[in-house]
Structure formats: structure tokens, C-alpha cells
Automatic annotation (TrEMBL):
Residues 456-646, 744-927 form the Rab-GAP TBC domain. Pfam families: RabGAP-TBC (PF00566). Gene3D superfamilies: Ypt/Rab-GAP domain of gyp1p, domain 3. PANTHER family: GTPASE ACTIVATING PROTEIN AND CENTROSOME-ASSOCIATED, ISOFORM B, RAB GTPASE-ACTIVATING PROTEIN 1-LIKE. Residues 1011-1028 have a biased composition (Basic and acidic residues). This is Rab-GAP TBC domain-containing protein. InterPro entries: Rab-GAP-TBC_dom, Rab-GAP_TBC_sf, Rab_GAP_TBC_domain. Residues 988-1028 are annotated as: Disordered. It comes from Cristinia sonorae. PROSITE patterns: TBC_RABGAP.
Length: 1028
């Protein structure tokens, strides 16, 4: 009792000394008095005032708490601030008073006004210092008495200007009591955010607000869980320039919201939350969702991009968000009634024409079978829908014992068949809690490699696992060093041609996350350090797909991407990217044999009825490892098997595509239709889940490679027996050679067979090659444009090798001219020869070919050319007069030009390599007459393709190198070649005297030619090949 009396006396004494009794502000703005519960001891210095005092220290004989309380009383009187304020003067008295005085003069970031008296106090306080008004960022007006709040209209008038105000909040204001100038006064607040909440009276306020970025209004009934607040009457009307509008109201207050109620030309986002008692679908719901979709089709809301409607009850909610920019519909739901309501609501949003739907159930259960069936039927009706995705809340994952995506596929089978659902799981906690826990478990880390492939690889770990399986976890120093040194040098810039950049830009269209500059640079560096690979679009597709996760942001990251790309192509894809297609053709034959064994009906349709060549399919599929052929998720699973099992994974994938597309392929009526299906398989033919495609791929059985090797071994043995038993000069007279030549010469026996058919070993005397080479050493043939052009595309052949084959030709033959087709003959023979072949043997083979072709290589007589070309026209006119008339009369193509294009080079550079090899096999056995037959057969086979060509220029470009897709299968094509009958009356000279005066035309005797099957030109097979 005594202590309290003393404290009160001292406080009044010092307070009266400074000023008269104060007017107390609301307690909300006053700091509570800090009065110690125990008496404070005096300091040893009596009246000394030390600036560094503790809680129990005394100043002037009084505790610090008393001085703080006195300063608070002084600051609480508004009249004391009018004359400059006593608080600034107190700061000059003592250093110990400065912190407490500073707290009263410091800037205000948040100002809350609850009464008229508080308004007047802040009107004075904010004017005491210029920086106080500038510091206010948040202003809240919350009347304590809702029935007496007319003073709210005067707040903007009484307060000073608040230039940095960011948000204005009005709570529990009855707008019916306010003055008519309310909007005019409050327009002086230039704040970007406005929030009106609480009881607003009996009617919706008619608001006209400008200079807003965000406007939010919350009614009292929305916040009142007891539903005791009054419902706002009338219609919600708003005229504003706000960009974002958020309205929270009860269902009865805003169920009729439409575009007629909002006039906001700058509105971009509209968020509406409606409280209701349950989620039972009503007639009012139909009107609401129709009006929501209509918001996007009115001129009063031209820039509206997002509309979100939230319907909430006590235990559940449904949130629907429509995004026009991405044509996206997002649905978030919680509670037992959510799925049933969404099924009834979705058809009303059809006019929005959304392309993607995202479901996020905040629940621990999937929909029931009945709910899933209803949702599946509704989603499949939308014609514009291209994809559906599903997720869950992180804190409430769906309880599953398997992959969540598999469960959704089983619940929505029609959507899965249409390809609307995702094809691969993302392994994250939002999409699939099952896989998210699995990847962190010890069981997954210890799985064998093949089982891990079957289960799947986490996307964020896939590249590391690939590197581990390839043995390239740490890239070799020379790879990383090469990329770091070559990425910016001139050599790479020279190889980074416009073609690569254009292909990279085209790849970025389908893969937006890819950095096209890095992809083109990586391909250029790869081509620089890998001399045996030439650029192709498949190489760029592989490089782009390797970094599809996103662009690297640093040079080390680029090195990591490049190392992975380098080892993938080097270990698995290199044979398919080189100029040598022997392995690709072998694998194509392997796929064909395997398909004939497992699916004979499909194989007959593809390879016989439609004449689809398996090597063309393999060239489209294998070099790019199915990038841009299969969906990206499926390509990733194929690459998983590729890194695990090797290139057989690609062959199995090719067979799987053929088997999956079987119904459409059997129904195809033309080769072009079937090729379109195979080069871009429709998603409807593929399994909905990438995991199911993986199962199909692993189930494919390839015929044992030994079967193919046995057939090749048998043919090689037959040729070896013929070459061993038959005399070197009489190979053409052997009874079985004709059938062996027609069946094809194996690669291993090609060099000795060609040598035997050309009689290279018996025509020339021993030692003649050395003498010829010595003579050719002084030849002036140093540069040949055709040879240099060939070398630019075949780096594995040196210029010296090619010139060594060309130079000795001139001293041997009588006329030492430079034939235009000699380089083609020499370079093709050089490419077909084995690596261990002798240079002398290759030269004599080339020379024998050149001698047999001598009249056609060096003929310069116009009369001779015109005679040979006239025979070609006459024969075609007999077989196909309409085609002959179109080519040589309507388009005025020159027969002599076609003759020079095909005959001197024996179709090298015109037909694909495997066709040219077959032509040469027949040419060396039957003689030059087979070249004219091939010319006629080529024109007949391309008859259907001429319908899409207009004009002679296009026809000459087409005939100079016909696309492989326009040619029939090799067996079908050469049956047409052998069916062309030679007319003796118009037959051109087909043989020429050799150096020894012997006929070296190579024409087989009649006994051998009788073994070769002949076909009538109107045969069914020929007609079908012409149609194709």
C-alpha cells in the first residue's frame, strides 16, 4: 500500500511539471506500463543517470519503468503533439529516455482505426513527422460499433496523405450509413489492394473503385459458421480497373453472379468462394456454371484469363479453376460428395473447350467404381480434351498399394484407350506416393538390373542409372576436355551449319525445354571428334532428347549432357549412323525373319502385298532410337532396355510396333498409308501405359541369329564350291551360277565372285599391273572433281586409294580419255571390297568392268547415243505407251540425258546400294543388256510416282535419284527387270571386243538363261508394283 502511494505521488509530480493531465488514447495503441513487482533499489550515485542501465537500475532516484510509463502518458495526449510535441524534447534530456521516446516517434507501417476518437489521434500523430505518413503501408478501418460508423466517411479527409499505402482494409462497415461522397473521398487513397470484409449492411455495396491491382470482398455470412448473420440483398455490382477480384460470400448471396454484374476492362483473374450447407447438385448450380463459362465470351472482360470458383461446406469443398491461356481446367476436391458433384458439373463446362484437366483430390481414397465409370464417360465426351493428369496433397497422399497412375487407368479405361491419361508415373510425392516411397527404399536399391528396368526408373535418377549401366559414371578426361576446348572454336562453328540449326529449331517446337543452341553445338563437337559419322537428323534427335529435362545452366552441366550423348551413340547407335548400312540391313533381315516366324499373316501383308522394305523402316527407326516415332515416355522406357540389354532392345521394339499396329496395317490399302502408320504410330494403337508397352517389347521373340547365319553360311558354301570347281574362264557356263546370282551374292563372297565373273585373273598377264602402275606414275591426272566430291562423303577412303584405281586405266586401254562414269565404277567397287583385299585384285575388277562398259563409258558419237536411247524409248513405248508419251512427248524429256545418267555409271548414285549390288551381279553374269532392262524396269516401277510430279525438271530430279520409298522390294523389282524381253530387231550393241579380241560382254549361254525365270510384262506382280 505504501509503495503504490509513493509511486503515484512521484508520477504525478513529474508529470505535472511537464504538462497538464493527458487525454488517454485507446489502449490498443498504448504500451502497457512496465511496473516492477518489487521495489527498485537506488543507485549508489543518488541522482546520477547512467545510460547503460539494467532492469533494476534507477534514474534520478526512480526506476526505469516509472520513466517509461511517464513517457507513455505524455505520448498518449494528442494535444501535446500540436505544438511540436513534448516527446522530441524528452529525447534531449537523457540518453536513457531515447529508446522509449524513439518508439513513439518511429514510423508506423500498420495503422488500425476502430473509433472516431482514434481517427482524430492518428490525424495528429501522423502529422508529427513527415516520415510517419510516408511509412504507412497498411490501413485498417474496423468500427467497434457497427450501428454508429458514419465517421468512416471522414477518414480520408482527416488523415494526412499516405503516399506509400499498399493495402486498405474495411471491416464491418454499414455502407448504407455512409455519406454519398464516400467513394469520392476514398478515391484519394492510391493503394493497389483493397479488402472489404464483415457485415456490409442489408444490401450489396455499389462500388466504383479505380487504381486497383487487387480487390477482395468478404461478406459476414461467409465467415459466420452459425449462419446467424444477415444475408446481403440485391445484386453484386462492381465497376473497377482492378486486375484481380476475389469475392467470398454465401451461396444465397452470389449464386447468380454473371458478366452483367462486373465491368472491369482490366480484370485478369477472378476468384469466387461460396459457402453452402452441402454439395448436392441443384438447379442453381447449372445457372452458376453456365454464367462462369460465359465470363470468357463478353467484351466487358476482354483480358480475363483465370476464373476460380470454390464451393465449400463444413467438411468438404470443390474448387474449379479455368485458365484460358493454357485451355486448362483444374479441379481440387475434398470430402465424400466431391466426385459426385464433379460428374454433374463437368458437362456444363463443355463450351469452355479446355484441352487439359488436372484433378487433385484432397482425400485419402480414390473414386469408387461407379464414380470412376461416370467420370470416365463424361471426360470421353469432350472433343477438345487431349490430356488428364492426377495428383494428391502432400500431407494427405492417396492410400495405394500400387502405382496411382495404374489405378487411374483401371478406373478410367475409355480415357486410357483414347490416350488422355499420362503414360508414365513421375515418382514424386504429389503424383504417386507408392513410387515415391519405393525409390527411397532399400529394396529398390538392391534390385537386379533387369527387374529394375521392369519396375521403372525414377525420372530424376534415370541419367545417373544410365551412366552406371554404361560404365561411364565418370566421363573420360579426353571426352570432357575435348568438349570444353572445342565448344567455341572455329572448327565447331564451321560444322554448326544452317542445316543443324534449322533441325534444332524444329526439334525445339516439339520439345520446348530443349536449348537449341546447346544441342546444335553438341552435335557439331561430336561430328568434329567422330570422323566416321556424317550428320543426319537422327543424330540431332538423339542429342536433343538426351537433354530434354531442361537446358544446362553451366559448362560442367553441358559436359555431363555431352558425355551421356557421346557414349549412347558410340556404344549402341554408331553402326546405324555410319555410311556402311551392312549391319542395319542385317538387322532388318533379322526383324523380317522373326516377324515371318511369329506373325506370318502380317509379314505377308507388309513385305509382299504392300511391298514395304524392312531396311527403310529400320533406317527411320533405329538411328534415332525411336525419337519422334513413339511418345517421349515410351522412348524413355525403350532407352532403359537399350542401356540394359543393348541393341536387341531396338529390334524388339520394332517388332512390337509392327505387332501393335497389325489391325491397321492389315486394313491398309496402299503402301503410303501403311508407311504413315508405321512412321508415326497413332496413340490409340499403343498401350495406354508405358509399362504395358515395356511388357509387349520384352515379350517379342527374335529368331535365333544362328538361323540367319546358317542361311548365309549355306550360300557362301555354294559359292565357294562353284568358284573352286568351275574353271576361271568358264564360270558363266556353270549350270547353277545363274540361280545363285539371282538369289544374291553374300557379302563375304562378293569380291571373289565378281573377280570370277569378270575373268579378271585370266585376262591379264602376271607382272602387267606393276608395269602399268609405273607408267601411270607419270600420268597428269592429279585432281578429279568427281573423286573429290565422292571423298567428301566417304571419309574412310583416301584420295590416294581412289586415284590409284583410276590412273592405271589409261595406259591399258587404247583410248586414254577420262570417261564420266569411271569414278563411279571405281569408288563403288572400292566400297564393296573387303578391307583385306589386294589392290591389284580390285584394280583388275575395275578394269574388267570398264572394258565391258567401254562403249558406254567413252562413247562421244551422237549417232551411237541416239541409237541406244531410241531403243530405250521404243521398248518403253511397246510396254507402256501412255507413260512413254507423258515422258518423252508431253514433258519432252531427253532419252540421251537419261542414257548418260544411268548406263555409263551402271546406276551407281541413282539406285540404293543394295539395288546397285544386285544390278551388278546380274550385269556381270548376263552382260550389258541387263542395264537396259533395269532402265526400263525403273521407269515402269516409278509409274505411280509420276502422278505427283509436274514438269520435266521435277521428273529429271526424281529419275536421277528416286526415293527408296517409291521403289518396290528388291526381289519384286528384279523380277520386273528379268521379265523385260529384249527385241532383237531394235537391240543396241551389247558387247564390245576386249583387248584380246575375245567377246567379254559376259552374255550367258542359252542353257543358263533358261534357268532364269521369265515373266510376262502384264503379270499380276508387275501390275501391283506399278500401282505402288
Amino acid at each position: 500500500m505504501y509503495a503504490s502511494i509513493v509511486l503515484t505521488f512521484i508520477a504525478r509530480r513529474y508529470y505535472d511539471y511537464l504538462r497538464p493531465p493527458p487525454v488517454v488514447l485507446p489502449t490498443l495503441f498504448l504500451s502497457p506500463p512496465l511496473i516492477s513487482s518489487t521495489p527498485s533499489s537506488r543507485s549508489s550515485s543518488g541522482t546520477s543517470m547512467h545510460p547503460h542501465h539494467t532492469l533494476d537500475s534507477a534514474i534520478g532516484g526512480l526506476p526505469v519503468e516509472i520513466w517509461d510509463y511517464i513517457i507513455d502518458l505524455i505520448a498518449a495526449d494528442p494535444s501535446g503533439w500540436a505544438s511540436g510535441g513534448y516527446i522530441p524534447r524528452c529525447m534531449l534530456v537523457c540518453k536513457t529516455w531515447v529508446p522509449r521516446c524513439w518508439s513513439h516517434t518511429s514510423p508506423y507501417k500498420c495503422v488500425i482505426i476502430c473509433s472516431a476518437k482514434a481517427m482524430e489521434s492518428y490525424a495528429i500523430l501522423l502529422r508529427t513527422s513527415p516520415r510517419r505518413a510516408r511509412s504507412v503501408e497498411y490501413l485498417a478501418i474496423q468500427p467497434e460499433d457497427v450501428t454508429n460508423c458514419r465517421w468512416v466517411t471522414l477518414v480520408p479527409v482527416r488523415l494526412p496523405r499516405l503516399p506509400d499505402l499498399r493495402q486498405l482494409a474495411l471491416s464491418n462497415i454499414d455502407f448504407e450509413q455512409q455519406d454519398t461522397r464516400f467513394s469520392q473521398f476514398y478515391s484519394s487513397f492510391r493503394c493497389p489492394k483493397l479488402h472489404i470484409e464483415g457485415r456490409c449492411g442489408g444490401q450489396w455495396p455499389r462500388l466504383t473503385v479505380s487504381n486497383l491491382d487487387y480487390f477482395k470482398i468478404t461478406t459476414g455470412l461467409y465467415r459466420d459458421n452459425t449462419w446467424s448473420a444477415s444475408t446481403l440483398g440485391g445484386r453484386f455490382k462492381l465497376r473497377s480497373t482492378t486486375r484481380t477480384l476475389e469475392v467470398e460470400a454465401a451461396w444465397s448471396e452470389l449464386a447468380s453472379l454473371s458478366h452483367r454484374d462486373i465491368h472491369a476492362p482490366s480484370l485478369e483473374r477472378l476468384y469466387t468462394s461460396l459457402a453452402r450447407s452441402d454439395l448436392t447438385f441443384r438447379e442453381d448450380d447449372r445457372r452458376l456454371w453456365t454464367n462462369v463459362v460465359g465470363l470468357f465470351r463478353v467484351r466487358t472482360l476482354p483480358v480475363l484469363t483465370d476464373v476460380s470458383v470454390n464451393l465449400r461446406t463444413t467438411g468438404s469443398f470443390v474448387t474449379v479453376t479455368l485458365t484460358r491461356e493454357y485451355d486448362l481446367l483444374r479441379i481440387t476436391m475434398e470430402g465424400e460428395e466431391g466426385y459426385a458433384y464433379v460428374i454433374r458439373m463437368l458437362p456444363l463446362l463443355a463450351s469452355f473447350r479446355f484441352r487439359k484437366v488436372r484433378f487433385t483430390p484432397k482425400s485419402t481414397r480414390f473414386p469408387t467404381v461407379a464414380e470412376g465409370r461416370g467420370l470416365d464417360e463424361v471426360l470421353t465426351r469432350f472433343r477438345t480434351l487431349v490430356g488428364c493428369s492426377f495428383g494428391s496433397w502432400i500431407d494427405m497422399p492417396l492410400n495405394v498399394s500400387q502405382c496411382a497412375l495404374e489405378t487411374w487407368h483401371s478406373l478410367l479405361p475409355q480415357c486410357a484407350r483414347k490416350g488422355l491419361l499420362e503414360r508414365a508415373c513421375l515418382w514424386d510425392e504429389v503424383s504417386c506416393d507408392f513410387h515415391h516411397k519405393l525409390k527411397d527404399s532399400e529394396n529398390y536399391r538392391t534390385l537386379p538390373q533387369k527387374e529394375k528396368v521392369f519396375v521403372g526408373l525414377p525420372p530424376e535418377m534415370r541419367h545417373d542409372i544410365w551412366a552406371e549401366w554404361s560404365g561411364t559414371t565418370t566421363p573420360p578426361f579426353w571426352v570432357t576436355n575435348a568438349y570444353s576446348r572445342l565448344r567455341d572454336v572455329a572448327l565447331v562453328e564451321a560444322r554448326n551449319s544452317a542445316t543443324i540449326q534449322a533441325d534444332a529449331a524444329a526439334f525445339k517446337i516439339t520439345h520446348p525445354k530443349v536449348n537449341e543452341a546447346f544441342v546444335s553445338r553438341a552435335v557439331a563437337v561430336y561430328l568434329t571428334i567422330t570422323v566416321d559419322v556424317k550428320y543426319s537428323s537422327a543424330l540431332l534427335d538423339v542429342a536433343g532428347f538426351m537433354c530434354r529435362r531442361g537446358p544446362p545452366h553451366s559448362v560442367p552441366a553441358e559436359v555431363e549432357y555431352f558425355a551421356a550423348f557421346y557414349w549412347l551413340t558410340r556404344i549402341h547407335l554408331l553402326p546405324y549412323l555410319c555410311d556402311d548400312y551392312s549391319l542395319l540391313e542385317k538387322h532388318a533381315a533379322w526383324i523380317k525373319t522373326s516377324l515371318q516366324s511369329s506373325e506370318p499373316e502380317l509379314a505377308k501383308v507388309l513385305f509382299e502385298d504392300l511391298s514395304i522394305r524392312p531396311d527403310i523402316l529400320c533406317r527411320a527407326w533405329l538411328p534415332g532410337a525411336f525419337v519422334n516415332v513413339l511418345p517421349d515416355d515410351d522412348v524413355l522406357r525403350v532407352w532403359d532396355i537399350l542401356f540394359s540389354d543393348g541393341v536387341t532392345a531396338l529390334l524388339r521394339t520394332a517388332m512390337a510396333i509392327l505387332v501393335l499396329c497389325k489391325p491397321s496395317l492389315i486394313a491398309a490399302t496402299s503402301q503410303s498409308t501403311a508407311m504413315e502408320i508405321l512412321l508415326n504410330p497413332p496413340r490409340s494403337l499403343l498401350p495406354p501405359l508405358s509399362e504395358n508397352l515395356l511388357k509387349v517389347i520384352l515379350s517379342m521373340k527374335l529368331v535365333d541369329d544362328e538361323g540367319i547365319d546358317k542361311d548365309t553360311t549355306r550360300r557362301c558354301a555354294e559359292w565357294d564350291a562353284v568358284l573352286t570347281n568351275a574353271p576361271a574362264s568358264g564360270l558363266h557356263h556353270h549350270q547353277s551360277v545363274g540361280k545363285l546370282v539371282q538369289a544374291g551374292i553374300p557379302e563375304a563372297m562378293r569380291d571373289p565372285a565378281w573377280s570370277g565373273l569378270t575373268k579378271a585373273k585370266v585376262k591379264w598377264t602376271e607382272g602387267q599391273y606393276e608395269q602399268t602402275v609405273k607408267v601411270a606414275a607419270n600420268n597428269a591426272l592429279e585432281r578429279n572433281p568427281e573423286a573429290e566430291q565422292f571423298l567428301n562423303h566417304h571419309s574412310q577412303v583416301s584420295l590416294q586409294q581412289l586415284l590409284d584405281l583410276i590412273r592405271p586405266y589409261f595406259p591399258v586401254v587404247a583410248e586414254g580419255t577420262d570417261p564420266p562414269g569411271l569414278v563411279d565404277l571405281a569408288r563403288f567397287t572400292l566400297l564393296q571390297s573387303p578391307n583385306n583385299a589386294k589392290e591389284e585384285d580390285i584394280f583388275w575388277t575395275v578394269l574388267s568392268l570398264a572394258v565391258d562398259q567401254h562403249p558406254y563409258l567413252s562413247t562421244t558419237s551422237d549417232t551411237r547415243l541416239e541409237q541406244d536411247a531410241a531403243w530405250l524409248v521404243a521398248r518403253l513405248d511397246q510396254l507402256e505407251p501412255d507413260l512413254s508419251h507423258t515422258l518423252f512427248f508431253e514433258w519432252s524429256l531427253s532419252p540421251v540425258a537419261l542414257y548418260k545418267l544411268w548406263i555409263p555409271t551402271a546406276f551407281v548414285g541413282t539406285l540404293p546400294a543394295d539395288y546397285v549390288r544386285r544390278v551388278w551381279n546380274l550385269f556381270l553374269f548376263h552382260g550389258p543388256a541387263i542395264l537396259f532392262r533395269t532402265a526400263v524396269a525403273l521407269l515402269l516401277s516409278c509409274k505411280a510416282a509420276f502422278s505427283g510430279i509436274h514438269g520435266p525438271d521435277g521428273a529429271m530430279r526424281f529419275l536421277s535419284r528416286p526415293p527408296e520409298s517409291t521403289l518396290p522390294l528388291p526381289d519384286t523389282f528384279f523380277s520386273v527387270v528379268l521379265s523385260v524381253q529384249m527385241d532383237d530387231d531394235n537391240l543396241p550393241p551389247l558387247s564390245s571386243p576386249g583387248l584380246d579380241g575375245e567377246n567379254h560382254g559376259g552374255v550367258a549361254p542359252s542353257s543358263v538363261l533358261d534357268d532364269v525365270p521369265r515373266f510376262d510384262i502384264k503379270d499380276t506382280d508387275l501390275e501391283s508394283s506399278e500401282e505402288r
